[in-house]
Amino acid sequence: MKSFPISLRGLASGLCLSLAAIAGVAHAEYPERPVRIVVPFAPAGGTDLIARTLGQGMSKELGQTVIVENKPGAGTVIGTDLVAKSAPDGYTMVIATLAHAVNPSLLAKLPYNNETAFAPVSLIGKGPNVLVVRTESPYKTVKDILDAVKSGKQLTYASQGNGTSAHLAGEMFTNLTKVELLHVPYRGAGPAMTDLLGGQVDMFFGTAAAVSGMVDQGKLRAIAVTTPEPSPAFKGVPTVAATVPGYAVESWYGFFVPAGTPAPVIAKLNAAVKKAAQSPEFVKKVQHEGLVVTASDPAEFDRYVKAEEARWKKIVKENGIKAE
């Protein structure tokens, strides 16, 4: 019986080609079931509304249902950690905000590592936070607030959790003005606004997406925006920086998936996010709320987040900002 020599190199090459072919088919078929977006905040806030609006558009592009699941708590850490520990298959995403870049500097310990636990999908967009009060509030300007505190009044400000843009906006305000405001963290913008409207807290540095509807309805008064320049979406509303030189805080939203998610799957998600974010319906909705749509590639988002982490690490250290 004639024998034939077996080449280990040939077997390896054949196996790699077979696995590549199988992987290619798997990626081509993605998604085969619903995709989940985890929102690390309570329902009804700005991040939740953006995730749900984008989810509808992404569903059309992916040909699958996109489910939005709220997992609030611990300044976004609970929901973010859930995604960090999920299977890297493209079926679980997290919508991240400024808190994602700030938490490594603000918190002593995280259950995940930003550098190794996630893969970027896309930066959705950027916009201002808005300092708002109840319409019946006696405070109509940033100066009114400063004067009230300096006269001995204890004023409170709400946030959607430690490390969020609202928290950082308030902390930067107190550090630059040298006044004391009491921070009251909530599990999302929805609960924060409920207590603001009910008079339990005095003010809120809310994201534009969260507060614009209430401002339009006349239930909240916009006092100032947190970006260095005025926002076209809030005409006539001055910047905090006009009264507090050097003040600047910017909100942003973006998607991450667990590290190890195959590149073709990320590319398909990125394409779906871009299509949904650039749709006339979404652009019209968020422009009204001050959000400038970016819809970036994964590499662009990665560079932006790393720059944000470095910037806020410096700000947190220089201003002595604490999580509590």
Automatic annotation (TrEMBL):
The keyword Signal applies. It comes from the Bacteria. InterPro entries: BUG, Bug_dom1. Keywords: Signal. SUPFAM superfamilies: Periplasmic binding protein-like II. Residues 1-28 form the signal peptide. The keyword Signal applies. Gene3D superfamilies: Bordetella uptake gene, domain 1, Periplasmic binding protein-like II. Belongs to the UPF0065 (bug) family. This is Tripartite tricarboxylate transporter substrate binding protein. It comes from Hydrogenophaga aromaticivorans. The lineage of its organism: Bacteria, Pseudomonadati, Pseudomonadota, Betaproteobacteria, Burkholderiales.
